[in-house]
Amino acid sequence: MRVPLARYPGFNRFTLDWLAGDARATRFLPRTNETSHRQRAIAPERVIAPELVEALRAQNRAWGIDAGADLDAWASGEAVMLIAGQQLGFAGGPLYTLAKIATLIRMKRDLIAQGRKAVAFFWLASEDHDWDEAASLTLPIATVLASANVNRQLDLLCIRAARLADPRAAVGPLPVPESLTKQLLALYDMPRPSWLRHGITFRDSFAELLAATVGNELVLVDALLPELRRAGADLFAQISANHEAIQHALRDRAAELETAGYAQQIVPPDGEHYTLLFSLDDEGVRHPAIGVERPERTSTSALTRPLLQDAVLRPDVFVGGPAEVAYYAQIAPLHELLGVEMPRVALRGHALVAPKRVTRAFERYGIEPEDVFASPDAVLAEHELERVARIRGIADDARANLMQHIEAISQLALPADHSLAGSIQRSIGHLEFHFNKLAERAIKGVVRKDRERLAAVRELVATLYPDRHVQDRIAGWFGYWHTHGQRLVERLIEEIEPDADAFRIVTL
């Protein structure tokens, strides 16, 4: 089931215009179609530090991924390189994380099917310090199997852990709180997996779960890998040396975006500079920095992370969500200023998932996909009242017509046979009784049908728009994976539509 992204609640306006090829948006970020990219020459020559290749090989091996062949093809420039990334989230984070991964794998498989070599990298944003996002997980109530204490009036259940570190500390190296693990294991009554063993970090837990989910389809990149940071030393130096020029370029681009009717994605504090780099202390706490002393202790901001990725890894295609596409429009001047080649930017595929039993209601009850983003009670209450009123109106008109015809019969027949009067009156009574009974039966059928439809819409809404949030933005994919296993992953890869202006509702 394919639905325009324009019907997806709260979708980024810039990205919608960019997808449509609107010149107001494409002037900030070129819109290159996928076909032309696939027809161009194989990836440009890359100069990759051997120590970085070996470090990535060793780290992926430790996570259970054999990335050797893909790393060799990438480093030699023999393959088209696709990349996406995401902040680390407990038990895999929201569904859109898996949608990004499915998009990468789908694009990779499509290229290989065309006879092209392709590799897919996934950037683990281990330097991010958003504890609340990393140390929480929102689960669909319908997937929770074990707990009898769940409030079944809600669509979602959020589990979280109290902060264990400085709020500015990078989350990736921190251990997953035991309380968070215990909550998940209790909800699903499941044995403890190795990716949630005692003392494991958020980075390793996330990476090992992906390894168990998609195997060797991806090469994972830890943002805090020392060899990656050392490979970015020249870029860090350029950012430091051009600090003021970068600030001017970002302010100018912000003004241009505003004039065109768009908002910048990252706004600096009032009267302050945009944050470009951080330094990491011995405790992993990030402090804003301008100068760079040690690349291994240097961390990027949201504005400079894509620059590090593009300068060091040299991707051909970056796959991002709607906000990340808009990031690239904001930072495009920095690529030119710092001499960093920009990859082609593609939008991740958007997909919502539901069991076949639930999606069957679309066809059975004539429900449109957009209905799930509104109040089912309001939509169907209005629909029910309209249909009942029509039946009653038709019944009243038919009864009046019937009485007129019986009166005409009476006027013709009674002068000839006065004994017919009683029979006519008795017949009128029987006809009215059965006519009213038929009309009421029809109304009850409509009401019953609409009640079934209402229940079906409510279940669809609870699945696809739980608690007034679009499913892929908030619901953790782990709950669906626990229920459907690898079918969830393969169905997403099969149905996902990269770089498209529509989203899919995928049946499991």
How would you sum up this structure, described in words?
The chain has 508 residues and is an alpha/beta fold. It has 20 helices and 13 strands. Strands 6-3-2-10-11 form a five-stranded parallel sheet. Strands 1-13-12 form a three-stranded mixed sheet, sandwiched between helices. Strand 2, helix 6 (95-113) and strand 3 (118-125) form a beta-alpha-beta unit. The longest helix has 45 residues, at 420-464. The two termini are 12 Å apart. Mean pLDDT is 88; it is low at 35-43.
Unreliable segments of 5+ consecutive residues: 35-43
Number of helices: 20
Strand order of the largest sheet: 6-3-2-10-11
Outline type: elongated
Question: Beta-strand percentage?
Answer: 5-15%
Q: pLDDT average, as an integer?
A: 88
- Tally of strands: 13
Summary?
The protein is α/β, with parallel strands linked by helices. The protein has helices at residues 13-19, 23-26, 34-39, 50-63, 68-75, 95-113, 131-134, 178-188, 202-214, 226-231, 233-241, 243-259, 305-313, 322-338, 356-364, 376-413, 420-464, 471-474, 477-484, 486-495; strands at 2-4, 80-87, 118-125, 136-140, 156-160, 219-222, 277-280, 286-289, 298-300, 317-320, 344-347, 350-354, 502-507. A hairpin with a 5-residue loop joins strand 7 and strand 8 (286-289).
